[in-house]
């Protein structure tokens, strides 16, 4: 499902580049050029997402016992970096256009073609966000955010070009392009920052941590307490580990049965989770964790 969505994103990005590139060639608008250039980045980003998803779906092996899910974050970092490069190129082109403004041509057709491309991006961007969140795929979510940011920039570009058509002020075209580039810079920075945080093993959201502790408190009958909870994300997988304190006289078999029960309860409520439990005797209790009900 995720890989198929990424392939469709690549196909759509190629179509959008053709449409926006055609709009730029028809009009000569530097703002439309900036819009087309960002769509070229969409093509590269979609290709990177496909590669990352293919790597991420590989099963754990001897060299990667925790799997390959983090490959998706590298795709998102690359996408953010490419967006930043595109923004810098747009600003450079716009400054040149400010110094030598040119009259725009065939604005009606150019605007119509660009509008069709924008609608396609909006529709598929919404789909990628829904699918990426459902599958917990950072690569698809990043691609969806990129397409929707492309929609915002396209609307800004279209507004700028329409103002040029209404007022005849050619300087508004590169100004619109610069404003678009500044927004793209912010989007690129946000993508890189969020992906790097995930690569550094950020903990699961507070709500998920609370859910885990509640599940342990209600499904660890026979144990005494649980402490030292740790969580991290890697793509669609949530890794969870904690210490479970049991009575000192409890047999290994009985303690193992409690762990099995806990793992089943957590994995049922938090799909794609990997649970590791360290069993300790009551002499190791810290009295600051979760008291089992």
From TrEMBL:
Cellular component annotations (GO), alphabetically ordered: plasma membrane
Predominant location: membrane
Residues annotated as domain Cation efflux protein transmembrane: 7-200
ATP-binding is among the record's keywords: no
Molecular functions (GO terms): cadmium ion transmembrane transporter activity; ferrous iron transmembrane transporter activity; zinc efflux antiporter activity
Alphabetized Pfam families for the sequence: Cation_efflux, ZT_dimer
Signal sequence residues: none
Membrane-spanning parts: 39-56, 76-95, 107-127, 147-169, 175-192
Residue span, Cation efflux protein cytoplasmic domain: 209-282
Membrane topology, record value: Multi-pass membrane protein
Subcellular location: Cell membrane
UniProt keyword terms in alphabetical order: Cell membrane, Membrane, Transmembrane, Transmembrane helix, Transport
GO biological process, one term: intracellular zinc ion homeostasis
Coiled coil feature spans: none
Domain of life assignment: Bacteria
Family assignment from sequence similarity: Belongs to the cation diffusion facilitator (CDF) transporter (TC 2.A.4) family.
Annotated protein name in UniProt: Cadmium transporter
């Amino acid at each position: 499902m995720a890989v198929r969505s990424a392939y469709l994103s690549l196909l759509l990005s190629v179509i959008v580049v053709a449409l926006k590139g055609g709009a730029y060639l028809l009009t000569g608008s530097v703002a439309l050029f900036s819009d087309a250039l960002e769509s070229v980045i969409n093509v590269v980003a979609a290709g990177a997402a496909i590669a990352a998803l293919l790597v991420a779906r590989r099963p754990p092996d001897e060299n990667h016992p925790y799997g390959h899910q983090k490959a998706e974050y590298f795709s998102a970092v690359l996408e953010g970096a490419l967006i930043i490069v595109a923004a810098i190129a747009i600003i450079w082109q716009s400054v040149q256009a400010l110094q030598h403004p040119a009259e725009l041509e065939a604005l009606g057709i150019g605007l119509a073609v660009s509008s069709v491309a924008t609608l396609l991006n909006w529709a598929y961007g919404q789909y990628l966000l829904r699918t990426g969140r459902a599958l917990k795929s950072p690569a698809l979510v990043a691609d969806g955010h990129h397409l929707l940011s492309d929609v915002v920039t396209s609307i800004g570009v279209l507004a700028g070009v329409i103002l040029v058509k209404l007022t005849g002020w050619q300087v508004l075209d590169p100004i619109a392009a610069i404003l678009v580039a500044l927004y793209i810079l912010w989007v690129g920075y946000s993508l890189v920052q969020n992906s790097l945080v995930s690569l550094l093993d950020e903990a699961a959201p507070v709500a998920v941590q609370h859910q885990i502790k509640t599940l342990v408190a209600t499904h660890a009958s026979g144990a005494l307490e649980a402490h030292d909870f740790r969580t991290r994300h890697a793509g669609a997988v949530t890794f969870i580990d904690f210490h479970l304190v049991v009575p000192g006289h409890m047999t290994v078999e009985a303690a193992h049965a409690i762990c099995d029960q806990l793992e089943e309860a957590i994995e049922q409520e938090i799909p794609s989770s990997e649970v590791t439990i360290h069993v300790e005797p009551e002499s190791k209790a810290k009295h600051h964790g979760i008291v089992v009900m």
